[in-house]
Design a protein that fits this description.
- This protein is α/β, with parallel strands linked by helices.
- It is built from 11 helices and 12 strands.
- Helix 9 links the parallel strand 8 and strand 9.
- Helix 8 crosses helix 9.
- The longest helix has 20 residues.
- The protein starts with a helix and ends with a strand.
């Protein structure tokens, strides 16, 4: 039973008591707190671990305002499990679901069912497909960065270390994820502006091991490769391992995205040239606060664009 339904029942019961001559009795009712469910992607990824930890800290600091349930995936490609989590949280009576979708399209039917059940849904990190949301006739505010602009920042920094005509390759995220698509476009924008050749683009599905395997194949196929542009830091770490294995640390630069702790260590060692901080620890908090705002006043706020910044060894 949702928070609003619970409060409505309490108010109706109070009105009945008053109408039956119970107005002079001292009846005290306990107002239950709304339940917020946070559903992130892989909890094997440091980025989402930090996001979940920050959400827990926020709830602890606002313990009188809401309850929190945190859910995540073991495998970032397990879309069916994320759909199941959405359905479970709806059935459990969550008042607000804050979700970082693993896919920009696959979750929309489950989100529509949640909305039809009266659940407030806030989209963070990876933007849901706007056309499909419009077709479903549901409002879901998005809280997150301009991924294209963020990726362009890192790629523009890389371009200052390369020359026109140099060869680079891109290791992208899940092909159907909007944030992965946008990051790839940002990389391509900067490379095209600098007249640098993108000789290969493959989906690493956000996974370190997969990215390492792809990077090894790219290095073997393109011996003159000068850089690997990776759409998240986990894949950048995998790419670094492949570069080291090939003995080309002096030739091939690596960039990532997310500014996780493991990437910062490689930045300080010179193995990663740059990453992008999208303040992931704050995204869930923004989403939770948006959801509570909607619950209080009933108005769905506009999308909220969050900041990004370039991070290099000089910034550490």
């Amino acid at each position: 039973m949702s928070y609003l339904k619970r409060i409505t029942i309490v108010l109706m019961a109070t009105a009945l008591l008053t109408g039956c001559g119970g107005g002079n009795s001292e009846t005290t009712t306990v107002k239950e707190k709304p339940i917020v469910a946070l559903i992130v992607k892989s909890l094997a990824n440091e980025f989402f671990v930090d996001m979940a930890d920050s959400a827990r800290a926020h709830q602890a600091a606002h313990a009188d305002d809401y309850e929190l349930i945190v859910n995540g995936l073991k495998d970032e490609n397990d879309l069916s499990q994320q759909v199941t989590l959405l359905e479970q949280m709806t059935a459990r009576g969550a008042d607000i679901i804050v979700v970082a979708p693993a896919d920009s399209k696959a979750l929309i039917p489950a989100i529509k069912r949640a909305r039809q059940s009266g659940v407030i849904v806030v989209n963070i990190d990876n933007q849901l497909d706007r056309d499909l949301l419009a077709e479903a006739d549901i409002q879901v505010p998005f809280v997150g960065p301009d991924n294209r602009a963020g990726a362009r920042l890192a790629a523009e920094h890389l371009a200052t270390k390369l020359s026109a005509g140099d060869q680079v390759a891109i290791i992208g995220g899940i092909a159907t994820a909007f944030n992965g698509q946008q990051r790839q476009l940002g990389f391509e924008d900067a490379m095209a502006a600098a007249d640098i050749n993108v000789v290969s683009t493959q989906a690493g599905n956000w996974e370190q091991a997969r990215a390492s395997s792809i990077a090894s194949a790219m290095i073997a196929e393109h011996p003159d490769l000068r850089a690997l542009l990776c759409s998240n830091d986990s894949m950048a770490i995998g790419a670094v391992a492949a570069v080291r294995q090939a003995g080309k640390t002096e030739q091939i630069q690596v960039i990532g995205y997310d500014n996780i702790g493991a990437a910062r260590e490689l930045l300080s060692q010179g193995d990663i040239l740059a990453t992008v901080d999208q303040y992931g620890d704050q995204l869930a908090i923004y989403g939770i606060e948006y959801g509570l705002q909607i619950l209080r006043n009933g108005h769905v706020p506009a999308d909220k664009q969050t900041p990004v910044r370039l991070v290099t060894a000089d910034h550490l």
